[in-house]
Records
---
Amino acid sequence: MLNISHYKIIAIGKTKKKWVQAGIAMYLNRLPGLQIIEIKDSTKTKEEYTIKEIINKKQTLVTLSENGECFTSKQFAKKLIACDNQNINFAIGGPTGLSPSLNNSASWQLSLSPLTFPHEIARLLLIEQLYRAKTIADGGPYHKQ
């Protein structure tokens, strides 16, 4: 079982597209306890500093990166289950991504796909995959295979 209240998404920039906002809102309703913190676009150095200020030393940082690990949905669910309900902070960069030093300091890096997505869509995809992972872990019917 996954405790979503242990997860936080730290995202650079605001979501401006209405359809992306609607998708995020739908999944947030399904994932009570999931917190999203938006950080103002700035330099990568300032963004890194702000993200590190938000994260407590006992929390796990996972950055979204094109160089990160790619998982199937079931593998992602197993990875989260293996994290044994650690407090996980997922960091999503803005249009230019996250700083290399922040990616290097992460416990692990996640790639949602070999394709590149706008940061707003990456946020929606991550939230959907967190919901899917929860339903996989809980044995729910959402994930069909």
---
Amino acid sequence: MTYPTLVFAGEREGRPELVVNFGVFSGREATEAEIYRLAQRLLEELDSVEIVSERRYECDAEVEATVHQIHVVLPGSADGREGELMPIVADWAHDTIGERSNLTP
């Protein structure tokens, strides 16, 4: 059995990106405020960043699934810095997921 990865490096339209499997680990989508918080943290290291919040539906004859991912598309100036930036994104994901899971009704 393969377990999902929280954050991994990828590529989007020829640009490096970091992908967060947010919904798999949180059971929800990231809020706008949480995404802006991630952007502010990354802007401490980068001049600019593009963040895409994506809801994807994957279906076949036997299974239907909704996947929520956050794509952090890095500027060209950050090429090769994925390994340096991945812990920042992973820390954000862990903190954000943990904040909401500790709330009680």
---
Amino acid sequence: MRACAVEAMLRHIDDPGADLSVIAEEVGISTRYLGELFRELGATPHEKWTELRLERASTQLRTESFAEKTIADIAALNGFVNVTHFGRLFKKRYRMTPGQWRCRP
């Protein structure tokens, strides 16, 4: 079930309007049970979804085909509405800003 939830999160990774109820509905479980599935891992579903979005963004920041995209574009492509919020979360996760990450050799 958890794997199905992660797959649903990946399908909606770029949709800022999607919430956990959409994920739970796709998997066929309640949002409460969705929370229980991830609590066993020591995280919330929202934290997992954010992690997936940040991982995808970190890859895009270093991918040649995304070189012309701005950091705001990449944030939006990964479901972040606010680029400042994206930058804060990114720095917390990777210990550098998205711009520093992009320029890193």
---
Amino acid sequence: MQTFLSLFLSLHVLLLSIFSSPAVLLRSTDGIKAPAYAEQQPQTSDKDAALSSSITAPGAVLMEASTGTIIFEKDSHTKRHPASITKIMTLILIFEALEQGRIHLDDTVTVSEYAASMGGSQVFLEALETQDVETMIKCISIASANDACVAFIYSRH
């Protein structure tokens, strides 16, 4: 379970880095040497400019994982704050509950009015809506959904 959790959290951090802080993956910080491919500058084209203007995220990086070749980037060198560590901590608690058998992936979570009222990043859950634990994990880890975190925390699990 620890290996699974470690891989899952690595994936979560990677996704958050791509969607909220792309520069984290490609630039060295605090004196840590970045990988050699981090110094590569991608070729830009008219297609890249069109794609860049159609992406609503403030920054993005598309990299071929095995070679480190940067295929596309948009404002990848701007420092950005990472997403909330609270969501990762919530996921740790969820995975511990799964490991201990206190909850199961097919258990349901009912969304409270309070959870549905959360702002910020969300998946727009509605009050009294029910979702299974597996779906809520995806909402928290992929969409960084505040409403899913609060719904899970205040559920009876």
